[in-house]
Design goal:
The chain is mainly α. It has a three-stranded mixed sheet with strand order 3-5-4, with helices on both faces. The chain has a two-stranded antiparallel ribbon with strand order 1-2. Strand 4 and strand 5 form a beta hairpin. It has helices at about 5-10, 25-35, 40-70, 75-85, 85-100, 115-125, 130-150, 165, 175-215, 220-225, 235-260, 295-305, 310-320, 355-380, 390-395, 395-405, 415-450, 455-470, 480-485, 490-495, 500-515, 520-535, 540-545, 555-569; strands spanning about 155, 160, 325, 335-340, 345-355. Among the domains are: about 5-140; about 150-285 and about 425-495, Orthogonal Bundle (Neurolysin, domain 3), CATH 1.10.1370.30.
């Protein structure tokens, strides 16, 4: 039998020619040269979509392979060659094709393409030739971050560990063990901090140039248009930050201090707080529902079968097809994500599991994304109509964290399942302050900070926000310079302004789960129906299809916090 990693490596291979623009150029030129009437547009769009899928899949596989081998210069070189040699040509050609489409006389898009036609028009207006090569530079800076963090090591108790392996020690009931792990991680993080500072300054400068080239006042305004945020404003985000400060921060503090009191801790030190998995108030060892990645897959397979036979079959397809790489190992990037290979409608999940209950939750989350890819890909032939706007895209993943809660009796006994559920609910509450802080920091950085902002100012602003959104953590006597580096986080480098969506979708996922407790079958069918709509529907419509509201105002947050508080009792 082929080893799982061998199947993964095989899945990520592309032909030599597929990494070169010459493999695609003649077919794009044929699209550009085609006589295009309103009647001919649908067939022409299908050809364009199929070609974009082929090119996009090559880039996705090269990128993923580079993330699995951050210490492999050849893998990094292949991806960077694609970024520099193919992506600029693809961007220019995509703009030319968009302009050709927009110029077709009397063309009226079909209902399932109307939204993306508007998005094409808006993206074309934002396009600038000067930004094509600058986007290559932007990707190169982001890749520097991946290489630095992917090769990061932690020395703990004489052992050399990956970041995920070291982090699992933060869940230990032994406070000394937690503190040792926290200091080991801090030493590792502070060693790479100067390198990451340099990358961030380069990213800020590049992002400012992208905005100026597009005639936007700042990078936030540029990114707002790039992300097609048409259903809410920066002012709505600021109101969300305030709502979280007033409604979620007090509840998070109450929960965290309650755990500390139960454990006899005088205060909550940084090593006593993991927002994803709070300490057990009875001082029990962390839940360890599996040991290896293969065991995790088997546990998840049974859980998905309990939720729905078709979901289980989709996950089985991923297991058999080399579409899961779960183990943590040196040289592999430390984040978790779901990639997508569109030609055959195949999602791919990358993780770094260490045997924790948090790993189980993250797998449900990432495979929820995979289900989104499967269902939208089945229902939507055009590539641009798959997935969804980013304000919805985390609902399929976060909802799956909740929909699986009643199907884990094969891995947890009743007491353990109660702990797991409590951690899941507490995690929503403790996540909201973090999400608001992440979003508030970026609004300041890209719309309010001086253009020549320096690292000291970034550190100071993060420190101020951390004291606002996490006042229940006691840093007395510790170096505030360590606390101030909390902004050195994956999304700040890799996907700017993509974070408030997690909060929006977590709120919606809780609401969806609340509905599922009364009508599990109906909630699941609404879930699938919303996924099938893909990117052919707007954000409010997608939320309605899933049976929830698109809201993140103070009143809504207060209501959900009250619901969670009752559930936690």
């Amino acid at each position: 039998m082929t080893a799982p990693l061998d199947r993964v490596e095989s899945k990520l291979q592309i032909s030599e020619g597929a990494a070169n623009w010459e493999a695609y150029c003649p077919r794009y030129e044929a699209l550009l040269g085609a006589e295009l009437t309103a009647a001919a547009v649908p067939a022409w769009l299908r050809r364009w979509s199929a070609l974009d899928a082929e090119l996009g899949e090559a880039g996705a596989k090269l990128s993923t392979h580079a993330d699995l081998h951050t210490d492999d210069e050849a893998a990094q070189g292949r991806y960077q060659a694609f970024v520099a040699g193919v992506m600029p040509q693809a961007a220019r050609t995509g703009q030319a094709l968009t302009e050709k489409l927009l110029a077709v006389p009397d063309y009226a898009p079909a209902p399932d393409f109307a939204l993306n036609f508007r998005r094409f028009r808006d993206a074309a207006a934002l396009f600038r030739e000067a930004n094509v090569d600058l986007e290559v530079t932007h990707e190169q800076h982001k890749n520097r971050h991946s290489v630095i963090t992917g090769n990061q090591k932690v020395t703990l108790n004489g052992q050399t560990l990956t970041i995920p392996q070291a982090r699992q020690h933060l869940d230990s009931p032994d406070r000394k063990a937690r503190e040792d792990a926290w200091w080991a991680l801090t030493v590792s993080n502070m060693e790479v901090a100067p390198e990451l500072d340099a990358v961030m300054l380069d990213l800020i400068h590049t992002r400012q140039r992208l905005a100026r080239n597009a005639d936007e006042a700042n990078y936030r305004d540029f990114r707002w248009k790039q992300l097609d945020r048409v259903d809410y404003t920066p002012a709505d985000c600021r109101a969300f930050h305030e709502a979280v400060r007033e409604e979620a921060v007090p509840l998070a503090g109450e929960i965290v201090r309650g755990v500390a009191q139960a454990l006899g801790l005088g205060s909550v030190r940084p090593w006593d707080y993991n927002r994803n998995t709070l300490l057990d108030p009875s001082g029990r060892e962390p839940l360890r529902p599996f040991t290896t990645g293969e065991e995790l897959q088997a546990v998840a397979q049974t859980a998905f079968a309990g939720v729905d036979a078709d979901l289980a079959a989709r996950f089985g397809q991923m297991r058999e097809g080399g579409l899961l790489d779960l183990e943590s190992r040196p040289g592999k990037m430390t984040h978790a994500y779901c990639q997508y290979f569109p030609v055959n409608n195949e999602p791919f999940v990358l993780m770094n599991v260490v045997g924790s209950a948090e790993d189980l939750r993250v797998l449900f989350h990432e495979v929820g994304h995979a289900f989104h890819g499967f269902y939208s890909g089945d229902a939507q032939p055009l590539l641009w109509n798959r997935w969804s706007p980013i304000e919805f895209v985390e609902i399929p993943s976060m909802a799956m964290e909740f929909l699986t809660l009643d199907h884990l009796g094969h891995v947890f006994d009743d007491e353990e399942l109660t702990r797991y559920r409590r951690n899941q609910l507490q995690g929503v509450v403790t996540f909201l302050p973090w999400a608001a802080q992440m979003d508030a920091f970026q609004h300041w950085l890209y719309a309010e900070a001086p253009e020549d902002v320096g690292i000291a100012e970034l550190d100071a602003r993060w420190l101020e926000l951390d004291k606002t959104f996490h006042p229940f953590i006691d840093w007395d006597g510790l170096d505030e310079g360590v606390r101030a580096k909390g902004w050195q986080y994956y999304h700040i480098f890799q996907v700017p302004f993509y974070y408030i969506e997690y909060a929006m979708c977590y709120l919606a996922a809780v609401a969806l789960w609340r509905g599922a407790r009364n009508d599990a079958a109906g909630a699941l069918e609404r879930y699938k129906a919303a996924l099938r709509l893909g990117n052919a529907a707007g954000v409010p419509e997608l939320y309605r299809a899933a049976g929830v509201e698109f809201r993140f105002d103070r009143e809504y947050i207060r209501g959900l916090m009250e619901f969670l508080k009752e559930q936690l009792k």
